[in-house]
Design a protein that fits this description.
Elements: E1 13-18, H1 28-36, E2 39-46, H2 63-82, E3 88-91, H3 94-104, E4 109-113, H4 118-132, E5 137-141, H5 163-173, H6 223-236, H7 243-246, H8 260-265, H9 270-284, H10 288-310, H11 331-339, H12 346-358, H13 363-376, H14 381-391, H15 397-408, H16 422-429, H17 434-439, H18 459-464
Parallel strand pairs: 1-2, 1-4, 2-3, 4-5
Length: 482
């Protein structure tokens, strides 16, 4: 990017408010600001509310996502510095920070991407009110989905509540727009402040620790890493060719795309992934794997549109159906054992230990631990969703709460009695027990699929191998479902 730095503040200046859109490519607010303004002022706010404790007693943003966020903001700042400008970074509430910057830089208009979850839209409303008092317009754009809502074959309030119906109509009548071009030459005020990025300690966390060597990959935030991963997955490793066959894997970087963390933070555009799929198909032909990857992008859209349609119902026990699932009397105790990977069921515990140690868990693991918490332990599903909100690197409100409501039977699922047989799932997707042994070292001595049922060992074998916590058949385990 070539930049011409301004020496004067004459002309129209647009403040570009970055949130979960931390990229230069396919970014409408940036492209439009450069096209319509004489100067741009890019801004990112570390909102302290994102790092507070929620009503569930859990952090809104945990260590791993905070680290990923800091890296993503740092990478975005470097992109603007490479263009001859800078990214203003503040720690503070946007409704307080942005009006002050508007006055300081004689801003004419503020651009941002519209969100759908209530907390995020609430902040937008506060910003809009504060700017209105200064007679400054907050202009909203839509840039987080694969399909623009105006290109859907139905209005938001008429979107089918069953994904299959949604998919068929969108595939038949919808269209994916081309990506926005890179902004090109960007001009900045000559007196942009030199900002500091907060450290983990500034946001309430201990210093960064080395990545657990068992992690599926070293997730590093930023557009640079996102585009690097895109290239690797499609072209360097050709892993996308076998995505449908490997997507239920548990160990390693390439059993799935791992794009979710960068998409959730806005370092990677869903449209960019879609058009990369099309580029790959043109070169290598389409197959079930490229279509399956497209479907995952479509699921993301679906949950976002569902949250737009139903709003806060996704944050209520009864969800879309209005009736909450049954709950155990001792659910607080059960929730603690689930969080800590101490349920006594190796497959569940291994997945929870991976989440706690790395901030990531496979899709197969997420479905199983969620089903077990809600259907077997009968714990309030909102607690599980809130725990994922704290821990996951790739957390985004619509996908997280939409998926949890789905599993709990109070969301978009025609099979309200869906219930996983955890042992069958473990033996199907971890047939040799390698995943369990990776995350529960004390069980490494148990061979083959026996690792999934250590309580079947004799007392002598348990004592000989010093196995604890897995000596009794868990009373909460239900095995008559599929």
């Amino acid at each position: 990017l070539i930049c011409s730095v301004s020496l004067t503040m004459s002309g129209k200046t647009i403040l570009v408010w970055f949130r979960k859109d931390l990229r230069i490519h396919d970014n409408e607010i940036l492209t439009e600001a450069v096209r319509k303004g004489d100067f741009i002022v890019p801004v990112y706010c570390f909102d302290p509310r994102h790092f507070q404790t929620s009503s569930f007693g859990l952090l809104k943003t945990g260590f791993f996502r905070t680290k990923f966020l800091i890296e993503s903001v740092e990478d975005l700042r470097q992109s603007f510095r490479n263009a001859g400008g800078d990214l203003i970074i503040r720690v503070g509430k946007p409704e307080e920070v942005l009006p002050e910057l508007v006055s300081r830089y004689s801003i004419h208009e503020v651009y941002h991407h519209r969100e759908v979850a209530s907390e995020e839209t609430g902040v937008s409303a506060l910003v809009e009110d504060a700017l209105w008092k200064l007679k400054i317009n907050l202009r909203h754009f839509i840039g987080h989905t694969l399909y623009h809502k105006e290109d859907l074959p139905f209005p938001i309030n008429s979107i089918p509540d069953v994904f299959t119906s949604f998919r068929k109509k969108v595939e038949r009548d919808g269209m994916v727009r081309p990506c926005f071009e890179d902004p090109g030459t960007m001009k900045f005020p000559s007196d942009l402040e030199n900002s500091n990025i907060p450290a983990l300690s500034d946001l309430g966390f201990a210093l960064s620790e080395p990545v657990d060597d068992r992690a599926v990959m070293n997730f590093k935030g930023g557009e640079t890493e996102a585009l690097k991963r895109l290239k690797e997955y499609f072209w360097d490793t050709n892993a996308v060719k076998n995505y449908k066959q490997t997507r239920n894997g548990l160990i390693g970087a390439d059993y799935s795309s791992k794009f979710s963390s960068w998409i959730a933070m806005g370092c990677l555009s869903p449209r960019e992934v879609y058009w990369e799929i099309k580029k790959y198909e043109k070169a290598n032909g389409s197959n079930d794997s490229t279509y399956s990857l497209y479907l995952e992008l479509l699921w993301r859209d679906y949950f976002r549109f569902m949250m737009k349609k139903y709003g806060n119902k996704f944050f209520q026990k009864g969800g879309l159906v209005g009736t909450a699932p049954e709950e155990s009397e001792n659910q607080h105790e059960l929730f603690e054992s689930w969080k800590n990977g101490e349920t006594g069921i190796p497959f569940i515990d291994a997945n929870m230990k991976e989440l706690n140690a790395t901030g990531f868990m496979s899709n197969r693991g997420r479905q199983n631990v969620a089903s077990y918490l809600v259907k077997d332990l009968k714990v309030n599903w909102l607690w599980g969703a809130a725990y994922f909100e704290e821990k996951l690197i790739d957390y985004c409100p619509a996908n997280n709460w939409g998926n949890w409501a789905y599993v709990a039977g109070v969301g978009n699922d025609p099979r309200v009695n869906r219930h996983f047989n955890i042992l069958k799932q473990a033996m199907d997707y971890d047939p040799n027990g390698d995943y369990v042994r990776l995350w529960i070292p004390q069980l490494r001595v148990i061979k083959d699929q026996n690792v999934h049922q250590p309580w079947n060992l004799s007392k002598a074998e348990l004592a000989e191998n010093q196995i604890k916590n897995y000596t009794e058949f868990p009373s909460s385990l239900v095995m008559d479902k599929v």
